[in-house]
Amino acid sequence: MSVIAEIEAIRLLIARTASLLDDEDFESWVALFADDGTYEMSAYSTEIRRWMTWQLSDKSTLASMLGDVKEHVRDQAKRRHVMGFPQVEVDGAVATATAAFSLFRTSPEGQTSLYMVGSYEDRLVKSGDTWWYREHKVIIDTRMLDMFTHVPV
Fold first, then answer.
1. Nearest Cα to 7, choosing from 131, 134, 127?
2. Of these four, 19, 41, 54, 144, which has the most CB atoms within 10 Å of its CB?
3. Separation between Cα atoms, residue 38 and residue 32, nearest integer Å
């Protein structure tokens, strides 16, 4: 496959990632990770002048956590990602990608508001014909959230 085709495959993976989260198809979302893949959500605190890791989970922890998330008391709003154009660099069977995102939240009453802004900083690995997340890192610009969520963003 050409480098251009590899880049396009990774861009489609990133788009699929957002769509699966919007649809709350958590099982399919977790399946996008390599067996040793991790998910991290971090933000920089200007008050303490250092990075804060809000979540760091491996694939099996994500699967366990999200397996019964619909049974938990949680925010019932519909979430929708709006993605920036991913910047991708491929080096053989490894790649890096960065994509900005905005996450909107629509309440059950129909009111929509901007919930979060940030970026994905990903490390990917190719096995066979498929790209997988080795590290899916969410860098959050928004630190003051209307409602915290334990569902990945």
1. 131
2. 41
3. 11
